[in-house]
Design a protein that fits this description.
The protein is of the alpha+beta class. It has one domain. 37% of the residues lie in helices and 24% in strands. A three-stranded antiparallel sheet has the order 1-3-2, with helices on one face. Strand 2 and strand 3 form a beta hairpin. The longest helix has 15 residues. It is globular and about 35 Å long.
Length: 75
């Protein structure tokens, strides 16, 4: 159970650095579409897809929210 909590914590910490400018968002979405196992779910190890983008604290950037296709993890 502790390893799962650690995996989720590390995932969320890395996600903070993933704020992107709007023009780069499509490139990231295409990368994940062409490489489905590129980012793994910290909960079950399944495939993560970009669910939506939210405005970041930095002006002109957005942060991706991922959703697991297997367990439904959203983060």
């Amino acid at each position: 159970m502790e390893s799962l909590a650690l995996a989720v914590k590390l995932f969320l910490e890395k996600k903070k650095d993933m704020s992107e400018k709007e023009e780069d968002m499509r490139v990231i979405e295409k990368l994940l579409f062409l490489n489905p196992g590129f980012i793994k779910c910290p909960s079950c190890g399944g495939q993560l897809k970009i669910h939506h983008w939210e405005k970041s604290t930095r002006p002109g950037t957005k942060t991706p929210f991922f959703k697991c296709s297997e367990c439904g993890f959203l983060g």
